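Narrative summary of target 7.
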Amino acid sequence: MMMKKFFSKVQFGVPAIVAVALAGIMLIPSCKEQDVMFKQYTVEGGITYLGAVSGAKARIGVDRLEVSFSVADPKTAKVGVFWNGYEDSVMIGVVPGELVTKVIDLPEGQYSLFIKSYDAQGNASRAIELITSTVGVKYLATLTHRGINKKTTTFNSDLSIEWGLAASGNGAQFTDLVYTSTNGTEKRLRIENGVSETKIDDYKQGTAFKRTTYYSPDGLWLDSIALALRTENELSVDKKLGKVTGYSTQTAGDEAAKFYDDDATTVWQTSNRYPEYATIDLGVEVPVISLGIVPSEKYTFIGGISKADPRAPTTVRFEVSTDNDVWTSLGEYSYDNGFDFYERLFEVNRTNARYVRFTGVECISAPLYGNGIGGPNTVKMVLAELNVNFKLGD
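Modeled conformation, tokenized:
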């Protein structure tokens, strides 16, 4: 039974093999005919296609860029870089197997580069597109030093700086802090973008310090862009040295001491009508040159956005003293009690002082926020913080 079944398969296979062989014989002349027809539409020798460059990259510079790539095809003699729709170009002689770099001068703008390889006969590869750009005067005009939120000292050879956010999205890479150390030498400290606070314990007291921010649009440093050094000529007394020593009125939970506690989230809220005052002992005598008032944003929320509390004066007065007995007026100033949240800064004539008296003189009008908050009947005063700045150097 098994033998019979096997023999049947063999018999079945013979005709199949014969059929395939006959088909092959019939195809031979057909292929030759097609080859003759194909040759009518081809160029003798064919067209040589080169391998394209690989790893094409660009570095952004000021009115220039650098393009780099690798050449693998050994037949490559030169590489062309084209832009402006192939209207402008530069040809680069190359050695296959080597990394090629080329700096191209281009005005500020966006560019689509097309890179093509060529052999000695002029045969070309497919184009590799590279999207890049250059920067110039427009970009440079947007660059700023990294901001400082707070700079203080306790007069113990120390300097503390709280940094604002770095403009990393605009190419800021780091900031250099330049200061004079206790032994009189100049020191340079790099501040990385992720650092929010810097503390120095060898600062020569009373000396100005400087900062500059370095930029590279793509972080690849074809050109190192450094802003001119900015000198810091003023500093704040660390509030740990001082305290509020007197006040007109206050509210439980929002005491006058919170007007000088280095915490902008707490407030001093008065409980009577204007004028209202607070006296601060700085803890050390300094040459005062400016004072800042930080408005409260503790209770004010408009459309879910925190705003400055309008329960604030429209006129303020500053006085200073070296002994808490004889007082010198630094003047009265208009105060913005609008909703915009920012530190109200008042520059004054340089005057030595250990004690500062702030007075909210009056509130003529205030934006209306809600029932009992702002408007023409504003009588209470709500403020967050007083900052006292003094002069550095001579």
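Confidence is low (pLDDT under 50) at residues 1-43.
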